[in-house]
Amino acid sequence: MKFPIALATLALALAGCVVSSPATKPASNLLSGDAAHPAATTNWVRTELYFGLDPIAEQPDAAPPATNEKRWQAFLDREVTPRFPDGLSVYDVYGQWRTAGQNRIERLHSKELMVLYPDTPQHRADIEAIRAAWKKETGDLSVLRVTQSVDVSF
Predict the structure, then answer these.
(1) The pTM is what?
(2) Domain with 136 in it
């Protein structure tokens, strides 16, 4: 008699469980519904730019010299923030690359700049102006750019 009671109890317990199918999505917990938090934005992109600061010597984990950090901050304040005053993110990264046709790998302390913005000709021109300014200031051959379409919600 104990087995049928246990089976009936298990069946009742499982009857209260709901399994959602992939077609059923739970309600979003993102902020939305007012002017400061629109439900969603469309036609936005995310651009990541990679800036080499200085070659890495013997210790890849060593911090870049303070003078390079000051130069980066001045560049950010002068060239980037005025173009994207609503927000951006900067990450310290380690990078390496090899110039085409060379065997030597360059290892660099680098900065990654990530910006989310409405995809407009002016914003794309601003991104290119930032890249050109860094190359002019440092003599670097390139600033890697990665741009992707994104769905954004605030």
Answers:
(1) 0.69
(2) 42-149
